[in-house]
Amino acid sequence: MLYEGVLQKMQTEIGKPIQYYLVFKNDFLNVNQVLNKEITINFIKHQCLNCGLDKAIYRQGFCKKCFFEIPSAGDWIMRPELSTAHLNKEDRDLAYEKKVQLQPHIVYLANSSSVKVGVTRKTQVPTRWIDQGAHEAIEVVEVPNRYLAGITEVALKDYVSDKTNWRKMLKNEVVDESLEDWKNKLKQYIPEEALPYFLENNKEIEIEFPVNKYPTKVKSLNLDKTPIYTGTLVGIKGQYLIFDDDTVFNIRSNEGYYVSINVS
Ligand SMILES: [Zn+2]
Questions:
Q1: Separation of 254 CA from ligand 1 center, angstroms?
Q2: Could you tell me the pTM of the whole model?
Q3: Are residue 202 and residue 81 in the same domain, yes or no?
Q4: Which of 90, 186, 188, 197 has the fewest CB atoms found within 10 Å of its own CB?
Q5: Tally of domains in the chain
Q6: Quick check: 21 and 29 in contact, CB under 8 A?
């Protein structure tokens, strides 16, 4: 079976385990169904997710020009505390920023190898946690806009990481934590403006990934250096495909790469 198209992060569906889909223009692949099969990934060209041109991908699947121009790649995406739509202040496109920033946001704790804090739109729960490869997560506050979530995250970052250790996550070097305890412990550090939105008595959720074999060493596949790769798929975790020779392929960081995928 041959699939072809531009890579975008895998879509997911809650289940035990999580179901993963690679979605192309005219076709899609339920990746769980090709576990234990040999797959060949063939890099054909770049295709910027905004302009569609065959230009080098800079970040988030966009060419450099698009990354610095389009409203959906503003600095407030990666740094929510820089959000200004609640002040009626434009970054690149106020109408777009209002639509995205002025909606319920969640500050959460997720455990993918150790506990980290993060921000997501409420509509992206639990997708965001799945994408990070977290095996457990809990919501801390639900606030009405992105700015409040951002300043809460910044405050909590002094006490808990905001990064995922993706090597440990993939090797499944994980420690179970009581995220309820963490949440209650961190409550005292939440900024005053966000404190009324603290969530009481909610529970952590658990996420199960389709992995048959975890890698012992992690070798990252880079399509610029290795444009054709063949391996047997043994797992999917976060946005990574895991192969039996310890190669891992991060779909998310290869957004904008146009590939063919052959399943034999
Ligand atoms: Zn572009």
A1: 15
A2: 0.94
A3: yes
A4: 188
A5: 2
A6: yes
